[in-house]
Design brief:
single chain; 239 residues; mainly alpha; Four Helix Bundle (Hemerythrin (Met), subunit A); 88% helix; rod-shaped; transmembrane helix; transmembrane; membrane
Length: 239
């Protein structure tokens, strides 16, 4: 390779490097300008965003304050009305509880009288004070009256008690009524004097069973009713 050829190649390389340098530099400057332009746009956008946020926050606080005032104006009458309704409800509830207490007390008295009258009537042995027949009739009349009084008072005041509680009382009353009817029927047969000794013994035993069941089974159920009444009346156990 001649020196002229070498010089020619060197010159081409130098020209290529110079051309490449200027091409790269121009491209770099263009890229830098674009980045600067972007940076300027982002700064402006950031500033705009911050301004928008600040303005939004200010307007939001103003709106919240105004809304709070408007809500207060509208809510206060409602609060006042609710307070009145609450007082009315308390008065009504207090009155209902008071009336319910009266009903419970009276119903309990009638239940105790019913049990006492039924036990007294179905006892086999009774002391005779003056007239045995009349005194026996008085016991029967007392039991009939106790059943009727309890039934009528209870039916007129069932509304004060829950359906489940009424169902429980219904079952107890039914037991008193059925035992009263069976005892009265057997007693009539025994006193008729028309029974054979065998049937007389049978009816007498049935009467004795009724009397025993009234004394042993019903007090347990009455105690359960007493507990239910105490719970309704919020009666607390004494320490």
């Amino acid at each position: 390779m001649t020196s002229e050829k070498i010089i020619e190649i060197v010159i081409e390389v130098i020209l290529f490097l110079v051309a490449s340098y200027f091409i790269f530099y121009k491209s770099w400057l263009t890229s830098l300008g674009n980045e600067i332009a972007k940076l300027s746009t982002i700064e402006e956008l950031t500033k705009l965003t911050e301004n928008v946020k600040a303005d939004f926050s200010e307007k939001m606080e103003t709106y919240k304050s105004k809304l709070s005032e408007e809500l207060t104006i509208k809510i206060e009458p409602l609060k006042s009305e609710l307070a009145k309704n609450n007082i009315t409800h308390q008065i009504q509830f207090s009155f209902l509880h008071e009336e319910r207490g009266k009903v419970i007390l009276e119903l309990y008295k009638k239940l105790i009288e019913l049990h006492s009258a039924m036990v007294d009537w179905t006892n086999f042995l009774h002391p005779v004070y003056q007239d045995a027949k009349k005194e026996s009739q008085d016991r029967s009349t007392r039991a009939d009256k106790a059943i009727t009084d309890f039934k009528n008072f209870y039916l007129h005041n069932k509304l004060f008690f829950s359906k489940n509680f009424c169902k429980y009382i219904d079952e107890i009353f039914k037991e008193y009524w059925e035992k009263g009817w069976d005892f009265g029927y057997n007693q009539q047969k025994v006193r008729s004097g028309e029974l054979t000794s065998e049937y007389h013994k049978l009816y007498s035993e049935q009467m004795s069973t009724i009397s025993k069941e009234l004394k042993e089974n019903l007090p347990v159920k009455i105690a359960e009713i007493e507990d239910k009444f105490r719970k309704i009346l919020n009666v607390e156990e004494e320490e």
